[in-house]
Amino acid sequence: MRIADVGEFPLIARLARIVASAQPDVVVGIGDDAAALDLGGDRLVLFTVDSQVEGSHFVFDRIPPHLLGRRLLAVNASDIAAMGGRPTHALVSLVLPPDLALAWVEELYAGLEEEAERFGVAVVGGNVARSPGGIVLDLALVGGVPRAHLLTRAGARPGDLVLVTGALGEAAAGLIVSGRADLPVPAAEGEALVARHLVPTPRVREGRLIAASGLATAMTDLSDGLGSDVGHLCDRSRVGVRIHAEKLPVPPAVARVAELAGEPPWDLALFHGEDFELVFTCPPDAARVLSERVSVETGTPVSVVGEVLPAPAGRWLVLPTGEEIPLAPRGFRHFSGPAP
Amino acid sequence: MRIADVGEFPLIARLARIVASAQPDVVVGIGDDAAALDLGGDRLVLFTVDSQVEGSHFVFDRIPPHLLGRRLLAVNASDIAAMGGRPTHALVSLVLPPDLALAWVEELYAGLEEEAERFGVAVVGGNVARSPGGIVLDLALVGGVPRAHLLTRAGARPGDLVLVTGALGEAAAGLIVSGRADLPVPAAEGEALVARHLVPTPRVREGRLIAASGLATAMTDLSDGLGSDVGHLCDRSRVGVRIHAEKLPVPPAVARVAELAGEPPWDLALFHGEDFELVFTCPPDAARVLSERVSVETGTPVSVVGEVLPAPAGRWLVLPTGEEIPLAPRGFRHFSGPAP
């Protein structure tokens, strides 16, 4: 059997069983946005790794190296944010073809450092190796979170509301615009969407506020799309969910691109991924104060998009017509999804 | 300019300048075997990453996945050992072609877990991505070291002796044997050398003993070969060195392979790399007690192979003939070295 026949998440589940071990200092292991380790300080240490692979995550001549460097840091910082933490230290593994221009690598690092400085991250080392094929970039990121603030994917309870930060569908719309010069999208609008597609904004301040409030019950970030990622949260929390398409924070520009591309706007918001917003849950009576705190202190809006159900009630998407359909993941899948 | 024109170490130096930042919690940053972070606990946190790239570090059908998994953990554990630390937590980034056999990946993980358990390391997460080309494996490893035991590449002083653990040249001899079926090497001897080439033994216990003794002044591990790696130690310590070819711990089996291959045995010991032994320095009056402590407690021999000189005295190799030649690195170089 090939790994393409198994698929990304079942593969991870199989590998997780092989390395399953209970070590007392592992507070959160495989299966969340980052590992959380108790190394004896007053904070838990968060630890995550993510890669950018030429031909899978990016196309060489479609993203400037400066933006790719920023993106490499940003997608990892998002995983730390999703635990309520602050990223602090990064290591970079570069696997590069020997004929790559030195200037390209230096631009990559300039972007990486720019984004690192934005979040107070120190790049403390790494590794360089020769690639006989394309470029593979890996970034390992360490962060910290006060013990009491750690927020995982587990903890959502039936009756909780489901909230998301920011806007959904911009990365998907940007991907569509970048591939379809024929679409009559205003230049400035298109450029803004493409920028969101190329470099996400990790919601570090937002995640820390949400976690520090003590009001939220679970959180994760949106890398694969809400339709898929809220499922991971449901898996770990052992709950069901109902998401309302009409409540999804889809900006007008995204709706216009969706219309031009002949797709429902909620499709871009739910199933295309890469928005790197945060989705979290909290009791209904905490939703307003928590939303206001985040939006006042960071400028990032927060939207209620659904509610947590008991596990047996299942996972549902309420369409604008009122019809309820099963919420099944359709986000990008490594090994079975389409190439970018 | 291409990165192949710059070379591995000048490239790293250029990139290090771009991300140079002084953060008070970074005790050791770029330029040593691992980063050392002060995250507030009673131990410093060590943090390192290393990759195994198909076609650069390994050839697919020449290493069983089980051994490759062990190797992936081992080479990283060696970096933690070289700081005097203990590896504790690992993240794995897998970049895999979709047609790879599931059984291959599961065997890789079984080997990884076997080696992880040997050193008390918990695999706490990772990432899976699709490769449009070959296999790229990255492992990020966290470890710990008591503050007072941290041992870096800096600290060697003129007059110190240079010592190495274990034996040198076995990995190089194993590589030669695995590529030359015509060499008349006894089967058992050849197999043992090939095994050393495929999976090194990280000297974790030895490194901790050396560091905890308080007697050693600097340490690094031998990934590129003593001729290159002792140079890194000299760079950071701002010293010179004299290495005696006759004192290098070259096992008889290595000497025989070297003779059959028409190379001087000290060449295999100095310039081929991948032995993953430790090289360290200490004052002359501490060498005997330190060597005995390590060999008694771990069974690993320790050999004095040279002495530290003032920087202006340079870096020298004393040949068995008594002739002194400049000690210049000739270990494997990414971007300019030969493929395996």
UniProtKB/TrEMBL annotation, chains A, B:
Q: Which residues form the signal peptide?
A: none
Question: Which of this chain's residues are annotated to bind Mg(2+) 1?
Answer: D50, N127
GO biological process terms, alphabetically, are:
thiamine biosynthetic process; thiamine diphosphate biosynthetic process
Enzyme nomenclature, EC number: 2.7.4.16
Family designation = Belongs to the thiamine-monophosphate kinase family.
State what this protein does: Catalyzes the ATP-dependent phosphorylation of thiamine-monophosphate (TMP) to form thiamine-pyrophosphate (TPP), the active form of vitamin B1.
What other note does the entry give for this protein?
A: Reaction mechanism of ThiL seems to utilize a direct, inline transfer of the gamma-phosphate of ATP to TMP rather than a phosphorylated enzyme intermediate.
**Protein name per UniProt:** Thiamine-monophosphate kinase
